[in-house]
Amino acid sequence: MTMPVITAYNWSPDRGRGLVRDMRVRWALEEVGRAYDVRYLSWGQQKEPAHRARNPFGQVPAYEEGDLVLFESGAIVFHVAESAPGLFPEDPAGRSRAIEWMFAALNSVEPVVWDLIIAKIIEGDRDWAAARLPVVEARLASRLEELSARLGDSDWLDGGFSAGDLLMVSVLRPIEGSDAIAKYPNLEAYVARGIARPAFKRAFEKWTAGQTGETPAAFAQHPPQPKGEAA
Amino acid sequence: MTMPVITAYNWSPDRGRGLVRDMRVRWALEEVGRAYDVRYLSWGQQKEPAHRARNPFGQVPAYEEGDLVLFESGAIVFHVAESAPGLFPEDPAGRSRAIEWMFAALNSVEPVVWDLIIAKIIEGDRDWAAARLPVVEARLASRLEELSARLGDSDWLDGGFSAGDLLMVSVLRPIEGSDAIAKYPNLEAYVARGIARPAFKRAFEKWTAGQTGETPAAFAQHPPQPKGEAA
Fold first, then answer.
1. What is the separation of C-alpha B141 from the centre of its chain, rounded to a whole number of angstroms?
2. A118 and A74, same structural domain?
3. Are residues B183 and B165 part of one domain?
4. Residue A206 covered by a domain
5. Whole-number CA gyration radius for chain A
6. Nearest by CB to A96, which of B73, B79, B126?
7. Which residues contact B137 (CB under 8 A, 6 or more apart)?
8. A139 and A43, same structural domain?
9. pTM for the whole thing?
10. Which of A27, A37, B184, B209 could serve as B148's disulfide partner, Cβ 3.0–4.6 Å?
11. What interface predicted TM-score (ipTM) does this complex get?
């Protein structure tokens, strides 16, 4: 198999928490045991034409494997999961349900988590921020309650750990340690179980080692919430 | 092949525009030429345990095909696209890029479109709604500009029509005819091209024929934006 190259930032927008979406791809590659190279971008390079050709939205990650160039973390995790055993069950129905949870993470859960980050961080200094926050928190709580009810006391969402869990844990990580998730101990334990996996730890170590650039001032002024504070 | 059964509402939350997510699944089934049955839910039934067992978020669509039960429209469209030719290219790289656009539609474009719907409809009567709107509109415009630049003068996002286009057109439909998309004539033409497809038209006709229930008062009071008005 051709060794893939992923694109990532050499700086952290989140005080070293590793929440940028290349972490999902790194984690997936570690789970299936595939080696990879990293092309690092410094601040601003993500919006330049050379990277826009890889990712039209001027973001990371991108993924290159020979002639194949992909963007969108969900699609890259999918491609990695198909390339080697470890992230999809072998039976077709189980595989379909793992894919179901991939889409659920990215389309039904991440947007409500992200809306909290918008409300608290991106729009946090706006006049309306405090007044709007309870509405956003209520929408997130409703979705987390449903997810918590479905997970129940299972370790993972559907049988063994899958690409669906990898993405669901990833989209919940921004609210790890926050009041928003504290009401759902099974979800907190689920996230903890995910990031305790050796593959996640390896990915996080490599990600950390790649952080050689300066955090841009724009991010230093509006840092995403540190762990332990309300998200 | 087992005939699938999809779950849909028998009422319209959007004055008959057919924006609910079962439309994506119907459209996909029509594209690949598969017959299907519909299980209709009246208002409130989507939150009852019988449907929660199919869809933990208490929403439509759900998809049943023999023993396989799936929720999440992206995952169902994926399953349909794998089940019969018509929505994925045959070459593996082209298929990976079609999947890339599926995830891009649902994770990078739909959330910013949906944020506009939240700002204008769901939170439209809040004190902060007018002040916040320009921020939301700017975020959407930025993403649409990037999408427009990538599409250029192509008919579809990557070669022939694929499941990626089906979902991208679907997530853009809520802003069809609005000021938000009017600045990007190629995106407007792209949406028009999508909904002009015979498979879309068949899906829309069947969806319309299934609308036999009353629109709940909550939706009659806060109807999604009609076509032609700013979204």
1. 19
2. no
3. yes
4. yes
5. 17
6. B79
7. B116, B180
8. no
9. 0.95
10. B184
11. 0.94
